[in-house]
Amino acid sequence: MKTKQAGVALITALLIFALVGSIAANLAWDSALDLRRTMVLLYRDQAVQVAMGAESWVRQILQADLQDTDTDHLGEIWATELPGLPIDGGELFGDVEDLQGRFNVNNLIDDAGNIDETALEQFRRLLVVLGLDPRFAGIAADWIDADRDAAFPDGAEDPIYTGLTPPYRAANQPLTSASELAAIEGMDKASFDVLAPHIVALPGGTPINVNTATPAVLQSLDDGITATDAERLLGEREEGGFGDIAGTFSSLLQPEMLNRIDDKSSFFQLKLSVRIATVRISYSSIYQRGAGGSTVPILRSFGTI
Ligand SMILES: [Ca+2]
Ligand SMILES: [Ca+2]
């Protein structure tokens, strides 16, 4: 009987010991998690501060650039990619892109919201150069133009989009992000991925900066510009951009298109990636640089580049 009781006491003692051990392990686990959560929040805050600091530095560079130079080209300081700058506990990567090197999809409509034929033709050529269906130009123009009448033969308005699952409506106004064009009739992800690096959504009426234009955008300026011509033009602008854009382009472009090119820019995009310990954030902002060099952010986003 006595032995039986001792056995029960031993089992009870063992059970209590196991229970206390498990509570202690849980407490240690919870506090490790809390510590980890706190550190991630702290590192994230720190990374955001670094991004803000880098942003004001870049804005100063853009401002100084306007005071020092009349043109914008890929040999300038702002265009130099930041090669992994070490910061306290991590590193910072970043680059600035001149967005007027891309085709502005909002140029597809004029101030009254009607389709701009010159821009429409240019967008068709850009699509052809990229090996994409040129019908996307008319479909995109319908997506942005104010009216709800589908252009003939390549257009799409609400009757098409409301018939899809799920149904949606065309924007019928200027876009704030070119990524909206991923939703137009017939556009698939593979095609959009090819197109995306060459398009942008800026306030309408911006000229193309030929000093920073992508090779495909250069080719889109006229039917007569071949891939070989574009190569030659890239070689010509290599150091310091084109010296005289009128001289270089007047024999290549129609007069209407000649009015739509420039050798300077007002819209730039900063993309940053900040890593502190195991925490990484990305930050992107678009600036409009006005007279005198002041830069105004017109779009900011965290987390996606
Ligand atoms: Ca400049
Ligand atoms: Ca429309």
Describe, in plain words, how this protein is organized in 3D.
The chain has 305 residues and is of the alpha/beta class. It has a domain at 2-100 and 266-302: 2-Layer Sandwich (Pantoate--beta-alanine Ligase, Chain: A,domain 2). It has nine helices and nine strands. β7 (267-276) and β8 (279-289) form a beta hairpin. The longest helix is centred in the first third of the chain and has 67 residues, at 2-68. It is elongated, with a radius of gyration of 28 Å. The structure holds calcium ion (2 copies). Residues 142, 145, 147-148, 157, 170, 172 line the site of one calcium ion (CA).
**Relevant CATH superfamily of the domain at 2-100 and 266-302:** GSPII I/J protein-like
**CATH topology heading of the domain at 2-100 and 266-302:** Pantoate--beta-alanine Ligase, Chain: A,domain 2
Number of helices: 9
Poorly predicted spans: none
Query: Which CATH architecture of the domain at 2-100 and 266-302?
Result: 2-Layer Sandwich
- Report the oligomer: single chain
Q: Indicate the overall shape.
A: elongated
What structural class is derived from the secondary structure elements?
alpha/beta
Strand arrangement in the largest pleated sheet: 1-2-7-8-9
The CATH top-level class label of the domain at 2-100 and 266-302: Alpha Beta
Report the portion of residues in β strands.
15-25%
> What is the CA-CA span between the terminal residues?
75 Å
Ligand roster: calcium ion
Rg over CA atoms: 28 Å
